Amino acid sequence: MLTQLSINNYALIDSLSINFSSGLSIITGETGAGKSILLGALGLVLGNRADLSSLKDTSQKCIVEAKMAIANYNLEDFFMEVDLDYEAETIIRREILPSGKSRAFVNDTPVTLSVLNELRNKLIDVHSQHQTMELSDNAFQFSIIDALAKNKNKIDSYKRGYLQLQQLEKELKELERIQKEANQQYDYNLHLFKELEEANLKVDEQEDLEERLEKLNNIEDIKTNLSEALEISNNEEIGIQNLLNTLENRLSKIASFSKEYQQIAERITSVKIEIDDVVAELEDANENVDFNPNEAEEINDRLQLIYNLQKKHTVNSVEELLSVFEDLSDKVQQVESAEDTINKKKQEIHSVSEKLDKVADLITKSRTVAIPKLTKELENLLADLGMQNARFSIKIKQTIVYFSNGKDNLEFLFSANKGGNFGELKKVASGGELSRIMLAVKKILSENIHLPTIIFDEIDTGVSGEVSNKIAAIMQQMSKFMQVVAITHLPQIAAKGNNHYKVYKEEVKGVTTTNLKPLSKEERVLEIAEMLSGKDYSESALTHAKELLN
């Protein structure tokens, strides 16, 4: 509920602060007095775009502040979601600086306009004549039916499932796209994969083959040098082994004379053992040297295969080829297993769809039950508002398509005249009729959902007499459930308010300013008398005004 509105340096307003209370509050004033300025300031603090031209004094900043009592709105979760401090009396402030920069605050915390607009939708509904176009909006029509059907929890549940379904369908579409692209390369990738699989490459294989081939290509030199090495090692006269035996024998004879000789003798013995091992290995190597032309050919063929594969895949090692092989294996496997992945995703979609269908069925059934009640209430209210022949034809039909609020198509038709054809509201209803239909809708909504504060901006335009009394009565009934503020030109409506405020212009030091003040009981009588017969009101107008107020 709006409890206070403060405006500084906005349009024709220097400084203004007004308190509001619950029930039905009336705002009246002459045409051009500044009622639209009040709505403009309220719209500004609730998130409308700022305009530097709104500043009365362009050297000073404009500040508009609204105090809202929000304890009954269950907004704690919303405040937590947008990281704001929750206060039962929340203060919303909007500033326009002389530079043109705009700032917004909720409980002194800076907020973006998107957050401010979200909060606005939960707190205040400013209803003007142009808003009647919402009546032709399918989503708004559904919201009326769902309010009577008490569908909020069902639709919240449906929306969660609907978002999940959309996500799964998006994932399926992406999987199918990837599979399509992969399929286009599958045959080629499979050929490359099989080729590498048949090659059966091993780590370090290339280095080993190249070393073996190098031996085979130099077999004669190897044989010659091994033979000569063995001759040098074990020749009976000058061979290394015989000389070491002689050396060891000589040193062993003097080893007992000194630790120094003993250590040298031991080292020579150690060298002799090592040389004996080396010679043994040389003999084995010499015996195993054998040129096999078939082996050389096989190694050459194997290496050529490896070289060709490296060239084909533009790599330089077997390790890189093995990495390519793994990558191809993944690509082939991805295609071969994609069908299973896609089928699993389709099963998930089917499962969510089944659950969604059940919730959609419940929504459809409750809507079907609510429609006759809505039709009857609308027609009765409109009859009271002077539209005795107004008729509605509201039908829903469930489809196979998932919409954001269920699976129903809605036909919301209207006829204003007896025996007339039904048609879309925007085509067959006049502006005055749409205003009264919207008032009836808001009345029904106020009794079925927790509507925010509602401000009616001259919804009574084009009506008079008994109809205006009915409009006032409806507003009074609505004010039992919510705060209602009505800007009106009709005395019949003005007299029904719990509180009455007057917008007026005055000239101060040659400058015109707009002000708003609450009217006392006596001032209300004079204001309504003026609304009845003009500034030069008669005694009978005063009497009529008193009668209206009583």
Automatic annotation (TrEMBL):
Residues 158-236, 318-355 form a coiled coil. The lineage of its organism: Bacteria, Pseudomonadati, Bacteroidota, Flavobacteriia, Flavobacteriales. NCBIfam families: recN. Keywords: ATP-binding, Coiled coil, DNA damage, DNA repair, Nucleotide-binding. GO terms for biological process: DNA recombination; double-strand break repair; SOS response. Belongs to the RecN family. This is DNA repair protein RecN. GO terms for molecular function: ATP binding; ATP hydrolysis activity. SUPFAM superfamilies: P-loop containing nucleoside triphosphate hydrolases. One of its GO terms (cellular component) is bacterial nucleoid. It comes from Polaribacter haliotis. PANTHER family: DNA REPAIR PROTEIN RECN. Residues 4-226 form the Rad50/SbcC-type AAA domain. May be involved in recombinational repair of damaged DNA.
